[in-house]
Design goal:
This protein is of the alpha+beta class. It has a single domain, classed as Muramoyl-pentapeptide Carboxypeptidase, domain 2 (2-Layer Sandwich), CATH 3.30.1380. The chain contains 7 helices and 4 strands. A 4-stranded antiparallel β-sheet has the order 1-2-4-3, covered by helices on one side. β1 and β2 form a beta hairpin. The relative contact order is 0.15. The chain binds zinc ion (ZN). Zinc ion binds next to loops.
């Protein structure tokens, strides 16, 4: 599949994306060039056909499916085309390295020496996981992805969206991928259930400045929970 920027997405990435489109819109297959055309037109046409909010929801669902694939009971194609399958082995290695780096900062107290304050673990590890995702996703999918973080706020950016060149408000397919990736990080099914396991924080995912190519992830410390 040739993207808006003229680059080709690797085959398994295209297959997984098409599966997401088929699952979400019920569109049937066709020749590769027809699918090429269809993918671009679908993303261009979502807001025209469905309105901005519904169109954005559909694109997001395509992104969720791209990451996750079908649930086992509905599965009609191998999971090997999902982003989860393609990316997570390397992401997990990077997360492991980050955890070791975090733990290695913990030092026993020494008399007369000032203690070095550790960064809070939750935002540190979530930032590390987002950086791992951005690095592995960029490398394997060829779609550029970056991370900016300030304390408890992380932004995952897609500066050159292959589907719309960052022109469309409704193009939240990559935002959908990020949402599903975060839910996967906590081994949960929904963002709500992620929030139930986070003890000291509540987690929010929103587009920054209404641009779905800038996914803002905020960890808000719950009242009464102080930094250690
Ligand atoms: Zn886009």
């Amino acid at each position: 599949m040739l993207t808006e920027s003229g680059k080709a997405l690797p085959v398994p990435f295209t297959l997984g994306l098409i599966a997401g489109i088929v699952d979400t819109l019920g569109a049937s297959g066709g020749t590769p060039s027809l699918l090429d055309w269809m993918i671009k037109e679908i993303f261009r046409g979502l807001d025209v056909l469905h309105g901005i909010q519904a169109g954005s929801g559909i694109a997001r669902r395509i992104g969720h499916h791209w990451w996750l694939g079908e649930p086992p009971i509905h599965q009609y194609r191998p999971l090997t085309d999902t982003l989860q399958y393609l990316l997570t082995p390397t992401i997990l290695d990077n997360i492991h390295d980050a955890r070791i780096a975090y733990i290695s900062r913990i030092r026993p107290l020494e008399p007369g020496k000032p203690t070095i304050r550790l960064p809070s673990e939750e935002p540190f590890m979530l930032t590390a996981a987002c950086q791992a995702f951005a690095e592995v996703f960029t490398k394997q999918s060829t779609i550029e992805c970056q991370v900016e973080s300030i304390e408890d706020t992380i932004c995952i950016l897609f500066p050159s969206c292959p589907f719309c060149n960052n022109q469309l408000a409704t193009c939240s397919v990559l935002g959908g991928v990020v949402e599903e990736m975060i839910v996967w990080l906590y081994r949960k099914d929904t963002l709500d259930s992620v929030n139930k396991v986070l003890r000291d924080y509540s987690l929010n995912i929103t587009p920054r400045n209404n641009d779905s190519h800038h996914v803002l992830i905020t960890l808000t410390r719950k009242a009464g929970k102080h930094r250690n």
